Task: inverse folding
């Protein structure tokens, strides 16, 4: 929009609290166009909150956030969002194509973007784009399946298609692989890496080791931003992030073309690990 | 039944009753599915019952009760919508309060109006046999309003009932469409009051849609089927109640309740049988 700046996200001294509970403190984060940023940190470290601030679903008490050079609410129709948990009832009577088509709402300009054009139904162009996007995420065969009949991995692909179908400039994903197995997790991230060639991506994860083989920068968040860099993640940094010693191991899954860190520590809920690729 | 068909061809009041049932069914098909999938039956019940305040006031001041009902329903819908959007917690207590307060106001007005007893009964339980022709026109107008709103904003209504957070991110004015949906519920309630009365409205609004939901896989199909079931129930109830001279509204509702029960039981049975068959064919596949 503004030409001189390629900055997709610009957060300055961002602080946020739910009631009296501080969640984010003085967060400064810049994301350039074309980046694939992994946002990691412990549970309740503020990752989802930071995403919601980017999406304009929450307003910071302090600081400033710009998305594509604008206030989040004005930019959010140019974003794609994949939530951590599907926020809809699984028994809703709707098929996959129509779920994906909802991502076409708000595409276009002016009043027609808000109220939609045409009488009720979708235009043929919208349907074509939705079908093409389903093929892109390898879910073309699911088009007429009821949304409630999908497996976790299939649902994740459909939610990704719903986020992509609006042709976003920035894709935001909140733990996109939290509810699916590791093989599918790899497939989804391969797909994201492909999409990254013409799309800026921010992905939240609690699994540093896994995502660092795909993303080109990691930002670690535990109330405030502890690190954001491209170098490999060392044990000391993870200790700072999680505030406790962490045992690190690497797993070789054999079939995967990458190695994958696994959760080990007794009682530790979040998976941690290191990547051999650095 | 023969007696009913015979009477139908000769009595204008029966023909009008049948048409009233058809007109109410259109609303039941267009709006009922949204109430069911969005799970706002309790909200709709609150709107329906607080309508009595408007009917009572209209009666007392000498206006047409249906006009009063429409005004009260829309007001109640906006009030309940506002409570829902801004209170989040304690919402059902607030709706329950509006529900009862609306009825209390209505009953006070009706009791201060001379000759209230019959009117009150027909408000509460409907009287499809006493629908005058001009009220059929009024109902047809309400249907037109519903049809236009749903046709124009179908995608937006689906989006906010399916996933309101995502709809908001796509720039849909979620609060506006939520309030509009509740106003449509209010309009539908008024549409059905003549047929089954305001106490029984909630059953006619939700049961045909719930039955349809057990047998369809898209919202549009659910709407069509709910409309058909509405026609079946209103005409069936009218026919059944005619010969033994039963009140029509409760007959329609009992028919709806029976259909819902049968549908729920058989849908559950079929789902179990499908699962058993799937496991059996899996076993055969493995063994063979």
Result:
């Amino acid at each position: 929009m503004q030409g001189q700046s390629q900055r997709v996200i610009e957060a300055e001294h961002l602080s946020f609290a739910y009631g009296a509970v501080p969640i984010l403190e003085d967060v400064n984060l810049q994301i350039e166009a074309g980046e694939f940023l992994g946002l990691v940190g412990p549970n309740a470290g503020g990752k989802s909150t930071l995403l919601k601030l980017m999406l304009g679903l929450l307003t910071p008490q302090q600081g400033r956030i710009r998305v594509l050079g604008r206030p989040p609410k004005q930019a959010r129709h140019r974003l794609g969002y994949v939530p951590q948990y599907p926020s809809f009832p699984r028994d809703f009577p709707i098929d996959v194509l129509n779920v994906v088509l909802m991502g076409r709402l708000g595409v276009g300009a002016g009043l027609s973007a808000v109220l939609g054009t045409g009488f009720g139904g979708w235009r043929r162009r919208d349907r074509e784009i939705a079908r093409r996007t389903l093929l892109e995420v390898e879910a073309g065969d699911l088009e007429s399946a009821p949304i409630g009949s999908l497996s976790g991995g299939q649902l994740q692909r459909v939610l990704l298609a719903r986020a992509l179908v609006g042709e976003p400039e920035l894709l935001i994903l909140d733990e996109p692989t939290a509810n699916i197995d590791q093989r599918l997790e790899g497939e989804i991230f391969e797909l994201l890496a492909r999409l990254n060639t013409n799309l800026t991506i921010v992905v939240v994860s609690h699994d540093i080791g896994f995502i660092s083989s795909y993303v080109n920068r990691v930002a670690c968040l535990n109330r405030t931003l502890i690190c954001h860099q491209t170098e490999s993640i060392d044990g000391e940094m993870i200790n700072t992030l999680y505030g406790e010693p962490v045992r690190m191991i690497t797993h070789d899954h054999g079939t995967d073309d990458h190695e994958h860190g696994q959760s080990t520590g007794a009682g530790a809920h979040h998976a941690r690990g290191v990547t051999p690729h650095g | 039944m023969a007696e009913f068909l015979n009477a139908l061809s000769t009595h204008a009041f029966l023909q009008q009753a049948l048409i009233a049932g058809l007109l109410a069914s259109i609303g039941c098909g267009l709006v009922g599915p949204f109430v069911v999938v969005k799970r706002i039956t309790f909200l709709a019940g609150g709107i329906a019952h607080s309508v009595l305040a408007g009917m009572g006031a209209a009666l007392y001041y000498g206006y047409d009760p249906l006009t009063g009902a429409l005004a009260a329903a829309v007001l109640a819908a906006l009030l309940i919508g506002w409570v829902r959007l801004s209170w989040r917690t304690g919402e059902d207590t607030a709706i329950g309060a509006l529900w009862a307060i609306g009825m209390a106001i209505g009953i006070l007005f009706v009791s201060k109006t001379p000759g209230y007893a019959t009117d009150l009964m027909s408000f509460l339980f409907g009287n499809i046999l006493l629908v005058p022709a001009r009220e059929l026109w009024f109902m047809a107008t309400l249907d037109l309003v519903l049809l236009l709103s749903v046709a124009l904003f179908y995608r937006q209504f689906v989006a906010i009932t399916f996933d309101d957070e995502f709809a908001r991110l796509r720039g849909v004015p979620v609060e506006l469409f939520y309030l509009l949906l509740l106003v449509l519920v209010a309009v539908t309630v008024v549409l059905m009051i003549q047929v089954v009365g305001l106490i029984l409205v909630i059953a006619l609004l939700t049961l045909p849609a719930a039955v349809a939901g057990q047998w369809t896989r898209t919202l549009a199909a659910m709407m069509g089927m709910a409309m058909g079931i509405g026609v079946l129930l209103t005409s069936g109830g009218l026919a059944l109640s005619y010969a033994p001279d039963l009140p029509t509204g409760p007959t329609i509702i009992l028919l709806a309740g029976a259909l819902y029960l049968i549908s729920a039981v058989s849908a559950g049975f079929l789902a179990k049988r499908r699962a058993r068959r799937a496991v059996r064919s899996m076993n055969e596949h493995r063994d063979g």
Notes: Chain A touches chain B through 33 residues (CB under 8 Å). The longest strand of chain A covers residues 7-18.
